[in-house]
């Protein structure tokens, strides 16, 4: 067909170009494949990072702090104290006050271990007593460790045997259904910390705690015995005091010797006289009964009480046992029978308390400890749960969005073939 008027070409346009241009603009508003891959890749990376925070970073950072320097205050009463020279108990006036200041301070440390010093200052009945203990603490498990950094009264020779027990802190995530081993430094001994039920609100510290009960009664450690001696508690009972105690149990030492003088050989009499004239060694024990309130997340001890704690003493009668062969053949004598009964009474009698007190942590001290524990618990929750969960959730969302909005292949429209241009017929010539 020839050009139309004005030179315009009136032939139909080919459809192939139009279709291709339409296809080029039909996917606008959808992410490109590159952006989709980036979203899915970032999502996967966030999930991996979340797992790393939860299982690598959190254990690395959630540890016993190295900057700890805290004071805890307790008040109470000294209820009885015995005369250490005669072992006769003396009842103090009602309300004899007791104050205890406990300092917990990290003196050195590393990534895995904190060296913690505990200083207890007790003031009572005009006396003052300071006790210092040092522990090597595993910063992750909170268990105390034996070794060169664990000793008493500032002397490495006074080694303590903590044997992976707890005192400064219970484990992270302390359980109300688990019993833990607690350590008593005065006796260098372990005793169970037994849970007393589920976590509950403690009005003293105004916080949620798990309460554990403890009870211990063990001979004092050698270093604590030396400390008692430095406070004026004797290592032995004088012969005069021992004779007075025997007299209180119906035994007259002078009368005993007089009645046996004619019945014993000179050697046996000399042995009996020498033993009765010697000081009687004393055995000291440390006892304690009370509770501790522990923050469930951090394992920090926020509240402590003792309903009964102190030092008791009993005579060491080992030397008197050597008299049995001498006196056994005279057991029919009334004086020997009375002497034997008195010794049995001493041996079976409970230890005599020479110092007994009770105490409770002050509310201000307990609330301060609870506040510190709460701050640590917030950081633990952030690293252990919320940050990993947030990162993982964001990663999953990106993966899902990237997957469902990925570009898809669209059906291609076949290009229409152009119609053939009709050719003009040639005129026929007449025959």
Automatic annotation (TrEMBL):
Residues 177-202, 411-431 are annotated as: Disordered. Keywords: Membrane, Transmembrane, Transmembrane helix. The keyword Magnesium does not apply. The chain crosses the membrane at residues 38-62, 385-404. Pfam families: PorA (PF11271). Coiled coil: none annotated. Residues 177-190 have a biased composition (Polar residues). The keyword Transmembrane helix applies. This is DUF3068 domain-containing protein.
